[in-house]
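Pilot study result, target chain (277 residues):
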Amino acid sequence: MKTERLIAFFGGLLVSAVTQAGPLLESLDYVRFYGSNDPAGWYACENRTGAGCAGSVAVPETNWTLNFKASGTGGYGILKARAEVELTGDASQGEFPSFASVGARTSFRDVYVFHGGNGTGTAQFNFAVDGIADSSGGATARSLFQYVPVIGGYEMWDQQRNFEVRDGVATVTVPFQFNRPTEFIIGFYALAQIWSWEPDSKAVADFSNTAILNQIIVRDERGNLVKDFSVTAESGTDYTATGVVPEPTTALLMLAGILALEGGRRRALLQKRVVSH
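Predicted structure:
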């Protein structure tokens, strides 16, 4: 099953030390052949600086060329990612024995304290996701959220959990203990992948129009809704029941994007009317 294989290759090391304690914004853009835990796996591009990946690479021992783009940016509760892949060439020299993955991962790591109850609880981080996933041939495109706990300064990739995006909504469920610090990563992936080596295979996972945290729901250990909760975060981010409020610059960029799209629709409609007359 594609879904089973997709989940298997995300984390890299099962437990990895971090380069910085506490709040952290990270990005990872990559092009990889085989799974991350496969001894045969290798990267045609791996960039953690935010510069992205773009270019092409000859697929070993085949007549295929993999063309790719991947980039992602993010803030606390606001994540953007885009990945593209296109296969050119032919199968005259056979197929590659595994898959290829073009991915953009952007994430935020924070230390939270949830107030308003006692004992253990769960928090649902709900994200509104705006974007497209389009593919053809042997390619697939999708987005995905990921939760990774951080314990004692270590990212516990062996405890990671993945969450699907359905109808533009994703819910990341996080366990915690009231009034005590809990640290974790929430990551967002745009994935464009080749599973079957076929002509005209291409995919675009464009979620650069933002995945934004727009709701937090807190429940106690009995599953009861905690209405009057509050959250303090080491990053200083204002997490509330309505998610996060974008910084003014981000909000303006989002508004500009919406206005540009609306303008494009109106121009297209006007052109159709002119042609029809």
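One observation from the pilot: Residues 2-110+127-212 form one domain. A full batch analysis is planned for the follow-on phase.
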